[in-house]
């Protein structure tokens, strides 16, 4: 986990099932995340991922790599283009800082339209959850 | 409300400080955690083994549910309502930053508290003129200590008026009350309409010969290889490399700020396409650099494909 180390890429197929099941698991019942006609009526191409899911997937991406002992302290994300059903969400990440067991990872989640989410995750490599 | 009145309301809402909401309906619990992990595809066993929730679930515990009328009134609501009433009806979230003081434990009930922090604007953005509204939510545990905090920022913008009839001529009329049309409109005709329709849908379409399969760009009526007039198109991957470029400094171009980069982009599919290279300092633009397509809205009608640095 050295500075400059790249995280393995994670590519997620955004099936309608993924979009709908994550929206409901995050308790977000806004129609644009499960109702195609409503989403299109509001000018979207299709249903799309909700923000709570974007945050959850960023967290998963980093902990998949860092392992179960890692403790996430902060996730700061700049939100970009929507992640529509039918697209793929592809995560890349790089370790950009490391001090006293605290890592900062830069994460970028891309879809075909461009960057869906870019930002940083701060974590303790091995910490107490208190 | 005018801009000044909106700022006055923002100050009033910020002065309310932190406003407590209703505690979560359910305590942090294993079934909802399991359901969330399953939907996210997160196989980390540590949460359920140690009896804690994934930190990114913080907001989940206090979501309003299907019948949203029970939702708490927060200092944010009046601000958003005032922006809506003032014509800034569009909304898009721009930032979400969460800080976790500790992981929430199974069995504890979280209580949210919301603070309106800032209104910035009006600003010109790619979506239209708008205000950035920022607020924070803190989730407290039963010990009254904060468990997690979130900063959330949205852009509330004034959507540009759409033309009543959607034409493919690209001649967006700049009538009263409408955003000014981008002055450099592409010539859209029978041969090129498929390309511009693709761009509006986020697809980079390349013309193909329906007989021999040859790709050609820019589009044209006749296959240069087999002379067929039968044509189709394919959707390019959106990846490319910079084949050549110029930096345009002078003369001034209406609707554009100089300097800007005009590139010739080589697509892995086998054709080259001209487009602007954006989001890259000019001194870092280099022949051979990997690029990927991005779509920029220029006015009500026109979206242009452009190129940003990307992985090969
Ligand atoms: Zn041909």
TrEMBL record, chain A:
Bilayer-spanning residue ranges: none
InterPro entries on file: HotDog_dom_sf (IPR029069), MaoC-like_dom (IPR002539)
CDD domains per record: SAV4209 (cd03455)
Gene3D superfamilies, alphabetized: Hotdog Thioesterase
Residues of the MaoC-like domain: 9-112
Family: Belongs to the enoyl-CoA hydratase/isomerase family.
Listed name of the protein: MaoC family dehydratase
Organism encoding this protein: Nonomuraea helvata
Taxonomic lineage: Bacteria, Bacillati, Actinomycetota, Actinomycetes, Streptosporangiales
UniProtKB/TrEMBL annotation, chain B:
Domain ChsH2 rubredoxin-like zinc ribbon: 196-228
InterPro entries recorded: ChsH2_C, ChsH2_Znr, FAS1-like_DH_region, HotDog_dom_sf, NA-bd_OB-fold, Thioester_dehydratase-like
Matching Gene3D superfamilies: 6.10.30.10, Hotdog Thioesterase (3.10.129.10)
Residue ranges of domain FAS1-like dehydratase in the record: 20-150
The ChsH2 C-terminal OB-fold domain, residue ranges: 236-295
Name of the protein in its database record: Bifunctional MaoC family dehydratase N-terminal/OB-fold nucleic acid binding domain-containing protein
Signal sequence interval, chain numbering: none
